[in-house]
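ok so i was messing around last nite and threw this chain in just to see what happens. nothing serious, just curious
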Amino acid sequence: MATNLLQSREFMLQTIKLILSASLLRTVVIILAASLSILSVLPAHAEETSQSGDSAQILQAFNQQHKNEIREKAISPKEKQQIMFLLGVVLITLVLITGGLGLAMGLYGKQVFVAHMVFAGLSVTLAIVHAIVGLVWFYPF
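result:
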């Protein structure tokens, strides 16, 4: 048992010495060759079969069903506008609260810095969400 440990330790030391003694370029070439040999394995290809009329009809039925499901899940433009309006109302409210807390701190010396920063963070987050949703839903007009 002890001889096996010594042999494996000696082997590891020899391997480390060999790697460290080799130039950096040689090490890069070895790693590149190993990775290319792994990548050179050809992928397996399925046999191509001609689609018969039945399989084409089945695929068309699945596609039609998928399109119908997408139409059912779609949000109408009126609902999109209502969602954007509600996001805007909440955003304006958060901005006004943040401004009020900032004025209370600056003019009256109130200790509301943490609350001011929390509302500022919420305002910025909601502003980013509002902008992204607006671009995604309404940009192409």
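not much to say yet. The chain has a mean pLDDT of 79.
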